[in-house]
Amino acid sequence: MKRSYKLLITSIAAAGLLAACGDNAEENNGGANNAENNTQENNEAGDAADNNSDEAAGEELSGELVVYSSRNEQFVDALLDKFEEDTGVEVQALHEAEPLQIQEEAGNVQADVFISNDVGGLEYLNQEGLLAESDPENIDTIDEQYRADNNEWVALSTRARGFIYNKDLIDEEDVPSRMEDLFEESYADVENGYAITRGGNGGMIGNVSALRYEWGDERTQEWVEAIQENASGIFEGHGDIRRAVGAGEHAFGLVNNYYYHQQLEEPNDNNVGFVYADQEEDDMGAIVNAAGAGLVEGGPNQENAEAFMDWVLEEENQLAFVGESLEVPINEDLDPPFEEAVPFSELHVQDMPLRELGDYFQDTRQLIEDAGLDLELR
Fold first, then answer.
1. Rounded-to-integer distance, Cα 240 and Cα 38, Å
2. Are residues 258 and 276 in contact, defined by beta-carbon separation less than 8 angstroms?
3. For residues 266 and 166, is the Cβ–Cβ distance under 8 A?
4. How wide is the angle at C-alpha 36 spanned by C-alphas 33 and 38, nearest 5°?
5. Which of 53, 100, 156, 345 is the least crowded, having the fewest Cβ atoms under 10 Å away?
6. Among 267, 202, 274, which Cα is nearest to 245's?
7. Coil, helix or strand for 44?
8. What is the pLDDT at residue 356?
9. Per-residue pLDDT tens digits for 233-250
């Protein structure tokens, strides 16, 4: 799937040359001559400053920008539409792109920017040398823990894992409150059962990677085996889960918190609640992840890609990145766009640097498959 946009970046016209001093300056006495020479040198310095200013402002951009995205198409389209309206470069977007596609195309780079729903995928690509260093404007609005060491990727919105539930089917106290509760077979017997995503979903990969960090591989694989066996529905994505739970097809489902926010916005099937996982003092804390963007190393339109990263870090565009997803902005100076969103400062969050997800990304996919949970629906 591809989408094209037209985009124009405004340029600054080159400054005209200042007039040089006339030859008759040489006829003046030495003091006047020095004054004239100093004036001419100042004029020439002014010309150079003007030219440097023009170069710093950047020449007019043209051509295109190729964006690969693993994020939901409806969350990305509005952002790219705004980029089109604000600037102008023609954008081609490939949706449903996986991080491994960037790796497969390393010998023939097609993408300029990769937008990911999972920091693990971004950091994995970074560790493989497939993302480029950058120094975008306004980078200091994002805390260092939410970006790569040399800004190869920058996270912009974040979310927490938990359980959306149908209030007509199950009471809040009967919903799991910890990830390890899903080891219990009794949850397979709740009315209409519960739902999870396929193993290759970015949220599921991040969830399992966080459990590997917390529990180790053996116990984590047992957990994946348990949910694969006990879940009554395995879906392509979290949007499918939140709609199914809202409609009463399942009692609860494992999702990111913003899918709960989205279901509350539905005109029907919105009698749902949400339980943030592992919130007791002795629990590991909620598993969190983030969405962001990175520059692809060797992309065909590097200048346009760098302009995009500058643009997306403007505060109004950080909010546009969050957009309809109803996630929470990582920039703490920006208010969450949805009143039901719980600020992360109020959550007990797992003590794990998000960059760690990159260390687990590839092996986690293999662990999930070994545990019997298909990466894709079949």
1. 73
2. no
3. no
4. 110
5. 345
6. 274
7. helix
8. 87
9. 999 999 999 999 999 999
Residue linked to tokens 């200042």? 18
The pLDDT of residue 186: 96
More confident residue, 85 or 29: 85
Identify the three-state secondary structure at position 78. Answer: helix
Q: How far is CA 343 from CA 162, 169, 266, 306, 325, in A?
A: 15, 28, 22, 31, 15
Give the start-end residues of each E strand in 73-152: 90-95, 113-116
Highest mean pLDDT, choosing among 4-8, 89-93, 183-187: 183-187
Tokens of 214: 């917390």
SS3 per-residue string spanning 159-223? EEEEEEEECCCCCHHHCCCCHHHHHCHHHHHCCCCEEEECCCCHHHHHHHHHHHHHHCHHHHHHH
- What the block records as the tokens of 264 is 């509350």
160-287+358-370, which class in CATH? alpha beta
- The SS3 call for residue 19 is coil
Per-domain residue ranges of the chain: 160-287+358-370
Q: Tell me which long-range contacts 211-215 makes (C-beta under 8 A, separation of at least 24).
A: 211/179, 211/287, 212/360, 212/363, 212/364, 212/367, 213/352, 213/356, 213/360, 214/284, 214/350, 214/352
Residue 231 confidence (pLDDT) = 97
Distance CA 356, CA 358 (A): 5
**pLDDT (mean) for 352-362:** 87
Separation of alpha carbons 45 and 65, rounded Å: 37
The residue type at 73: E
> Are residues 206 and 121 in contact, defined by beta-carbon separation less than 8 angstroms?
no
Stretch among 118-132, 153-167, 342-356 having the lowest mean pLDDT? 342-356
pTM of the predicted structure, to 2 decimals: 0.73
CB 294 within 8 A of CB 126: yes
- The secondary structure of the chain in percent helix, strand, coil, rounded to multiples of 5, reads 45, 15, 40
Alpha-carbon distances, residue 209 vs 4, 180, 288 (angstroms) = 35, 14, 11
Question: Which residue in this structure is represented by tokens 């529905």?
Answer: 233
pLDDT exceeds 50 at position 4: no
Instruction: Please compute Rg for the chain using Cα positions.
Output: 26
| Residue 38 pLDDT > 80 | no
